Amino acid sequence: GLTLENVLDYFAESPFWDSQSNNEVLKMQTKFNFLPDHKPLDITKMTGIEFYVVQADPPFFFIVQKRKRISEYEARPLASYYIIRGIVYQAPDLYTIIGSRIYTSLYHLHNVFNNIREHVNFHPATGYTWKSDKDDSHAILGNSRSIFFFTIF
């Protein structure tokens, strides 16, 4: 199963992995280094792209963040990925989420206006009127509050 120790190795097999990342550079530099006085290199001392496990609930859930390391104390998030039961997903960015929500809202608003347009008539003499389901006569929009009130109750 996945653990905190092997999740980045597992993530490295996904199409989201950047082979030029600091993680990959460190892995290649220390792969065949068997010296006894070898100290593990600190990835926070390097600048560039890195992957970091932000949150974990082993063995089923992990959040991996791709970040650009600016300095030892500053890293800017670029993308987020999550691993659920061994499957890697890319999390949508905020722009995509907001755009999708706005598009969905506008779609439904467009449908509402199309439905309302089917029930309204305009004549220069009478103005806007609601089409009535009972007969062909029209109710003037000025009285629409009372019509709406009676249809609800």
From TrEMBL:
Keyword Nucleus recorded: yes
InterPro entries: Mediator_Med6, Mediator_Med6_sf
Major location category of this protein: nucleus
MF annotations from Gene Ontology: transcription coregulator activity
Annotated transmembrane regions: none
Stretches assigned to coiled coil: none
Gene3D superfamilies: Mediator complex, subunit Med6 (3.10.450.580)
GO process annotations (BP): regulation of transcription by RNA polymerase II
Subcellular location: Nucleus
Keywords noted in UniProt: Activator, Nucleus, Transcription, Transcription regulation
GO CC terms, sorted: mediator complex
Pfam families: Med6
UniProt key word rRNA-binding: no
Functional note: Component of the Mediator complex, a coactivator involved in the regulated transcription of nearly all RNA polymerase II-dependent genes. Mediator functions as a bridge to convey information from gene-specific regulatory proteins to the basal RNA polymerase II transcription machinery. Mediator is recruited to promoters by direct interactions with regulatory proteins and serves as a scaffold for the assembly of a functional preinitiation complex with RNA polymerase II and the general transcription factors.
Family: Belongs to the Mediator complex subunit 6 family.
Subunit-level organization: Component of the Mediator complex.
Official protein name in the record: Mediator of RNA polymerase II transcription subunit 6
Organism encoding this protein: Rhizophagus irregularis
